[in-house]
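Attaching the record inline, Q. Sequence:
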Amino acid sequence: MPTTADIKNGMTIKFNDQLFTIVEFQHVKPGKGGAFVRTKLKNVITGRVLENTFRSGEKIDPVRLEDKSMQYLYIEGCDYVFMDQETYEQINVPADVVGDAKNYMKEGDAVTVQFYETTPLSVQVPFFLEFEIIKCEPGMKGDTVSNVTKAATLETGAVIQVPLFVEQGEWIRVDTRTGSYIERVKR
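Structure, as predicted:
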């Protein structure tokens, strides 16, 4: 069984019956007493970060997370339905697991679903996606002051800030990590 000597950044372990990713670690060998490993652990589900100290040589329980490419199909009640693109098996994923990714998913889009055993943990969309603006206020002529923005509603229902020159019906590229406008796109 692996011990604290096998710890690496990015490793996922089971600790106190929860899944944590090791964000940072440091082996410490004080002049007096036994060596230990100081770690920062990020809860995979809640995102909360905690610090923990393990004794040197203490056993850890690493886990393997699997990323699957899946296709978003539709919403069923409070769940989102995804289909495995290899086996065509459909699964329901609760809305709280989907998180902010729901703001950038259109039916038929490919996404990555992260699993622990058979339990879905998170849904990730590509970093840059293109959307049509279905609603936004018209920009006034002469409003060219830099960094002035207005709210625009995307076809998924998400509302983001865009520059004044962007109009309803145009297509834009969005950074899904931050929800920010990147550029206009010709379609």
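The radius of gyration is 22 Å. The chain has a mean pLDDT of 89.

More tomorrow.
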